[in-house]
Amino acid sequence: MSVITAATAAGLGSCPFEIHIRASATEIAIIPGVDLDGDTDLVLHCAVCRAHALAVYGPPAAEVFGPVPADRVGAAMVSELQWALEHANTTYAILNACRALRFADDGQLCSKLDGGHWYLARHGANAVVAAAIAHQRDGCTGPASSAAAAFVADARGRLGQPGPASSHLDRWSVGRGFDRAAAGAG
User: Fold this and answer.
1) Which phi and psi (to 5°) does residue 159 adopt?
2) 43 forms bridges with which residues in the sheet?
3) Which of 72, 115, 142, 156 has the most CB atoms less than 10 A away?
């Protein structure tokens, strides 16, 4: 969970945060945002909140979260693809690539699972994507690492980003105790 101010939600800027909280079955980690550079993951989190969040109390999410330019969302998605290959499971990486391709195609932000279903509907049968969906939905065996790497490399190529991402790949996992995979990022 990330806690941000209303000013950050409205404009993002360098993506400052007040605090990140990660909880698992075995630990709770609290990471204060003071004196840190910000968290570029907030680009996607805020874009998704603006598009899909439901307010329980107060103004609608679209009034709280400012617009996030499509090029900034796309760049964050591309950055996330390399991180996913290096730090997340294969299902996460493949379905993340599917939703990035959907955003590039039609501008729609969707869940990873919806991205996988969109990919199959748009591009036809694909055993790697079908295995990722089955793993996410039913816990079946997920795709092999080599298949995930090939699929994500192809997606990056389609998105015009064939090289490795130059982002925050290990920023939170090195010395700060924040592990995005354990936090359920994405």
Assistant:
1) -85, 5
2) none
3) 115
